[in-house]
Amino acid sequence: MLLASLDPAAVAAGHDLDDAVRIAGSTLSRSDLVGAGTSVAERVGSQVGPRGRIAVLATPTPTTVLAVIGCLIAGVPVVPVPADVGVAERRHILTDSGAQAWLGELPDEPEGLPHIPVRLHARSWHRYAEPPPESTALIVYTSGTTGPPKGVLISRRAIAADVDALAEAWQWTSDDTLVHGLPLFHVHGLVLGLLGSLRIGNRFVHTGKPSPEAYAAAAGSLYFGVPTVWSRVVRDPDSARTLASARLLVSGSAPLPVPVFDELVRLTGHAPVERYGSTESLITLSTRADGERRAGWVGTPVAGTSTRLIDEAGDEVPHDGESIGRLEVKGSTLFDGYLNRPDATADVLGADGWYRTGDVAVVDADGMHRIVGRESVDLIKSGGYRIGAGEIETVLLGHPDVVEAAVVGVPDDDLGQRIVAFVVGVADPKALSDFVAEQLSVHKRPREVRIVESLPRNAMGKVLKKELS
Ligand code: MLC
Ligand code: AMP
């Protein structure tokens, strides 16, 4: 079963764990997770049919954990909604996904959907049949270069395959204590961190904010972080040194700067494992617990995954460590398409099963991969969040004070890339940043808004983004 450690028969037979999940000051045992999760499953099953979809406002709380577990037991797809979501993005996610109810926490504005509460102390011991592996577990909304976010259909099979492949690469076992403080509405924190732990059966600790002090205090063996988290950790040497007692530090979701890698080695004695992936493919490349960890490189394909590098003409690029090509991946961890968007799905997922990642990479003779960058400047990674320049531009253009807008990702020591909006108009920069936070989500707000006279354009009228920085 997908959440193997929550097998009700095994838990009833004594395979319990008192502190399976620690989150927001609460500790939940495996039997809490099974009993309360099954009670959620019953309520979800009685209120939405088997073809239903459920929205979960994914705050880092026991409520969210039980909501997700309950839906996975009932076989009802979960639509995680960002905890800091704004008005327009929330409306889009609800409409596009067709979610029939909110489960767990309610947002300020439920948009007319009914509410199914999660009762932390309710228990049910009903036994559900395991839903089919090909069924959709999650619909995770993620940004493209233009337009609103698309719903990525992630199957149970893909999650199981990815967690098992990573367990093999990282020697991840039930003896681990996995720690992170990442959001529960994206693959990194939700699929790898929470669902991974419930499949492997290790202890899971969510730190709330992923601060260096909280990571140090959690006394884990296995730590997950985005590069922003690791660069903050190395700027706090005392906290960093405490992580020497861990087994494995894992970085992903964005490029880990080489100086941060080197500082982690110096302060913790651990070379971090770097791994690469996406919402669409889950994690497909990683260095290994028992292999070379090379700063700036993201390793080899995980079990069950293949990759290829393609040039402009569609030919394969040599694996010489220097030749750059478009990265494509194939295997059991891939998504099943974008919800309601066969056009967008066909653009990236070939009939032959290869997924065009949009990243450019090199591969060396040993099969080690290095991500060189992205094909499009309009997909920004800020703090490990994927943000489309186009969605922010659309929102800014909807503000009455804005005449023209162009959004770029500018290199940033802390966030990797910082969102900067160039705006033509008579506007207050802070008000525009807040407007984006209110409409899209707080993490998508421009960190800087520069009011300019005009935007640089080519003869065709297209904005020359390379000239903006
Ligand atoms: C500021 N704030 C505002 C605001 N301006 N709030 C409302 N409106 C405004 N205009 C406040 C916020 O409320 C918050 O307050 C504070 O500013 C900081 O906000 P932030 O932007 O969230 O903090 P920051 O320090 O920049 O966050 C860094 C970070 C975060 C690393 C914690 O970026 C993060 O969690 N990143 C992880 C992203 C991730 O998991 N990506 C994985 C994608 S999956 P307060 O009080 O709440 O602090 C993937 C696949 C793979 O990529 O390979 O893994
Ligand atoms: P998301 O859909 O949010 O998971 O974002 C996926 C994108 O994050 C990938 O296409 C890459 O551009 C980027 N990414 C993820 N992991 C890494 C990594 N280790 N190094 C560089 N880029 C990464």
Automatic annotation (TrEMBL):
Q: PROSITE patterns from the xrefs? A: AMP_BINDING (PS00455)
Entry's Gene Ontology molecular function annotations: medium-chain fatty acid-CoA ligase activity
Out of the domains of life, which is the source? Bacteria
Q: Which GO terms describe its biological process?
A: fatty acid metabolic process
**Location of the AMP-binding enzyme C-terminal domain:** 391-462
Can you say what this protein is called? Acyl-CoA synthetase
AMP-dependent synthetase/ligase domain span:
41-339
Q: Which Pfam families match?
A: AMP-binding (PF00501), AMP-binding_C (PF13193)
Q: Name the family.
A: Belongs to the ATP-dependent AMP-binding enzyme family.
Q: SUPFAM superfamilies recorded for this chain? A: Acetyl-CoA synthetase-like
